[in-house]
Amino acid sequence: MVATVLVGEKNGAGGTFTDKTSGIVRFKNADNPTVDLVNPMVVPVAGTDYSYEKWLKMKIGGTGPASQITNLKFYTDGANSLGTGVGLYAKAVTTYATPAEATATTGYTDAFTYTSGSPLSLGAGPYSSTNTEMGDHCVMICTVDSTAGPGTPSDTLTFGYDEI
Amino acid sequence: MYTRIVDDDGTRHGISHDQTIHLMVFPDGDNEIFQRHAIKCGITGEVSKQVTWLVGSLNGVKLYCMEDGKFVMTTREINP
Asked: Is the ipTM of this structure higher than 0.90?
């Protein structure tokens, strides 16, 4: 039996987990998982608009692995497809905190430097318990500079793991 | 997706559910068979999808059985 593994977004003071495995993560100027056009990021006249943090985490669902899950990681394809003036930053954090609006990229790394050949480790494991979160959070922010154009640019984030 | 079986002598099998791939790794050293998964989450408008490779490992050399019938043998760690 193959394990059910979810990638979810956590929000609010309690860190409510919303499954995004087959969904969309919408960076915005509010702390919620809703994919809509409310509280959008805006192209500033000058400077940078920072999104609220997205606290993303992997979780074993109702079906566990035959033995174990190991080697959690995050990476991208290495190419920023979000367009001119739009940035994406990531870091690994163990303990959850209520998502806040970022004010700088200090402490983060350009997410597109994490690639399949050089991923961000989110935990070595092993993990096996059902309905249990695994490893570190991948905390991400999006930035929009005054040079960005309008629209809803898209890209893909990859969460990987090994299963025995 | 794949089924993983270990024989009494330590031989490991990875068999795809459609039976088109059957990878065997003999117990001739440090050996393992596992699945390497990738969940590709869309941001904003991109559609999410999942990819799984079957990986056989013997004495540090890995054989990656990728999608579309591609196989790669290497000592490198590579990801979907």
From this structure: yes
